[in-house]
Design brief:
Blueprint (H helix, E strand, L loop, with lengths): L1 H33 L1 H4 L3 E4 L2 E5 L39 H17 L22 E2 L1 H15 L3 H11 E2 L10 E3 H8 L6
Antiparallel strand pairs: 1-2, 3-5, 4-5
Length: 192
């Protein structure tokens, strides 16, 4: 019995050390050396104050700021520990009601804006954590933000254009705007 148990225990201990200690330390070391900012959450700080992350959306409800995509995470929006979408189908009356309510809220905040509301301002992403909106969603909000801040629309549009990220490698994905970085720029802050 011991002759069969010993190789199993040695294999167990060896694999535990390799996969539980050596591999994680190696991957952590490589990520810290090669991709330190991303490995540490792409955090944005102002001095000692943590402002947020480039990778996780933030709740902005003040109309002087750009709004991000709605979040379906629980118990609060943009909860990184509970990443998920609503999983409601397009035919679900609750989803249709939520979208109608979100459109009504956007219209109430900017009654003069009769443009179509971009879909990403009224629907949650699959993760519920998306920090980006489309350039069209940012453009839709420019009149409201300019009015609330008493600044010219062309100045706000210039900030949107500056905050717009292109396609990865010029071909992958769609252009997008990081809402936190744009709102920091509105406040005259630079991400660091």
């Amino acid at each position: 019995m011991m002759s069969e148990l010993r190789p199993a225990l040695v294999s167990f201990l060896l694999l535990t050390v390799v996969t539980g200690l050596v591999y994680p330390l190696l991957v952590t070391g490589i990520s810290q050396a090669a991709f330190s900012d991303a490995a540490n959450g792409s955090l944005i700080r102002e001095g000692d104050k943590l402002l947020g992350s480039r990778l996780i959306g933030q709740p902005f409800s003040d109309p002087k700021y750009f709004f991000g995509r709605p979040s379906a995470t629980a118990p609060q929006p943009y909860n990184g520990a509970a990443s998920s979408g609503s999983n409601q189908s397009p035919t679900n009356p609750a989803l249709a009601s939520a979208i109608s309510d979100r459109i009504a809220r956007l219209r109430a905040l900017d009654p003069g804006n009769q443009a179509l509301v971009p879909i990403d301002l009224v629907t949650a992403s699959g993760s519920g954590l998306d920090p980006h909106i489309s350039p069209a969603a940012a453009e839709y909000q420019v009149p409201r933000v300019a009015r609330m801040r008493n600044r010219p629309e062309n100045e706000i549009r210039a900030l949107v254009k500056e905050a717009t990220e292109g396609r990865a490698f010029g071909i992958l994905g769609e252009p997008r705007v990081n809402v936190l970085l744009l709102n920091l720029a509105l406040d005259g802050k630079r991400a660091s």
